[in-house]
Specification:
This protein has 15 helices and 13 strands. It is globular and about 60 Å long. The structure holds pyridoxal-5'-phosphate (PLP). The site of pyridoxal-5'-phosphate (PLP) has 13 residues, from helix 5.
Length: 387
């Protein structure tokens, strides 16, 4: 009989944000709003769209596997050598490549919980043992505890900064202390998918650690064009690391992993500072509105939100999140349930944020009685079972 190996069985299926047309097909809900995947609500940069059009007539040709123009643009922008840049189909693929580069079956990786699920799955896929370390009570990485889980078998520590789903950051001091404690056989992957959104001044400049010679230089910084650059559908991201790390990762990646279309769009997007500024300003404005509206709702419902450094907000609803998620879906609002009682909502356009708050209010306050009723039914069911 064909047997699926245990390390594959261990993988938790990745559940992406529900696409708008799927909601239409499944529930017949038209004109819904997707606030589930932390995409840029302004769309891609107009310069990127133009660049895509220019490249399309040449897609009969394989792309430049080395991504010369994109690496050159990034190198100029970041002040690092082109040999320090590795390209991938989003940071997702780079995480996978990094794990396949550094991990042997039986090795361990350390990550926060909850954090981005791909860290766990990439490690499991490679036959490794992922170790999850709970966030602190205020939803932040517990770097001291994570450091305490490093042993000879540990090959990678993942740090999402800002963290998905909580939007919290590791501070410069915390990161510095952690880096000084990491032994030389461990690679530190800092996933900075949302770094362009960060406004907190205590956010660490990880490039400093990449530049330094000692004590540990095994740092891989991951960034993406999927978030503020609005190119999630094209699948492109990059990593910054020492030439040695990049050379090994280049051996593991597919030779043509990033398309010519994605590379051209990314080069153009980097030039479009105006689009970047507008995206950031929109996020700040939306954040302020949502903080206010969620605080108002909190006084009636006891929900709690976590202040974010990303383009999404983690809201603990203090009640069954999947039920709320389902009810929001039926109102045409797609968010992401997180664990038992929380949801993560992307900061959208003004009109989308307002629609989300309106619907959430209806579900939590107007639907309050139906929640009570469902609780009682569940309680009765338990009671009936016992008796
Ligand atoms: C923390 C984090 N890292 C990486 C990614 C992956 O992004 P992509 O593969 O689109 O670059 C995401 C996407 O949601 C994310 O939240």
């Amino acid at each position: 009989m064909l047997k699926v190996p245990d390390h594959v069985k261990k993988i938790i299926p990745y559940v992406p944000g529900k696409p708008i047309d799927e909601l239409e097909r499944e529930l017949g809900v038209l004109g819904s709003i997707k606030l589930a995947s932390n995409e840029n609500p302004l769309g891609p940069s107009p310069l990127a769209i133009e660049a895509v059009k220019t490249v399309l007539p040449m897609v009969n040709l394989y792309p430049d596997g080395g991504g010369h123009y994109l690496k050159s643009a990034l190198s100029g922008l970041l002040g690092v050598g082109m040999e320090n840049i590795v390209l991938g189909q989003g940071s997702n693929e780079l995480l996978d490549i990094a794990v396949r580069t550094f991990l042997s079956p039986g090795d361990e990786t350390v990550m926060a919980d909850p954090s981005f699920i791909v860290y766990y799955n990439s490690s499991a896929k490679a036959g490794g043992s992922p170790i999850k370390v709970a966030l602190t009570a205020d939803h932040r990485h517990d770097l001291k505890a994570m450091s305490g889980h490093i042993c000879e078998k540990t090959k990678i520590v993942f740090i999402a900064n800002p963290n998905n789903p909580t939007g919290t950051i590791v501070s410069s001091d915390e990161f510095g202390e952690f880096m000084d404690s990491v032994p030389e056989h461990v690679a530190i992957i800092v996933d900075e998918a949302y770094h362009e959104y960060v406004t907190d001044r205590s956010y660490p400049d990880t490039m400093k650690y990449f530049m330094r010679e000692a004590p540990v230089r095994n740092i891989l910084i991951l960034r993406t064009f999927s978030k503020i650059y609005g190119l999630a559908g094209l699948r492109i991201g990059y990593g910054i690391a020492s030439g040695g790390i990049v050379r090994e990762m280049d051996k593991v990646r597919e030779p043509f992993n990033t398309s010519s279309v994605a590379q051209a769009a990314a080069v153009a997007a980097l030039r479009d500072v105006d689009h970047l500024d507008k995206s950031l300003a929109l996020n700040e404005e939306g954040k302020k509105f949502l903080y206010g509206a969620l605080s108002d709702l909190a006084s009636d419902t006891s929900i709690e939100y976590v202040p974010t450094q990303g383009n999404f907000i983690y809201v603990d609803l203090k009640r069954d999140a999947v039920k709320v998620y389902d009810k929001l879906l039926r109102k045409g609002i797609i968010v992401r349930p997180m664990g038992k009682t929380a949801i993560r909502v992307t900061i959208g356009l003004k009109i989308e944020n307002e629609a989300f708050i309106r619907s959430l209010k209806e579900v939590l306050i107007d639907g309050h009685n139906s929640f009570e009723a469902e609780c009682h039914t569940e309680g009765n069911r338990q009671h009936n079972k016992k008796t």
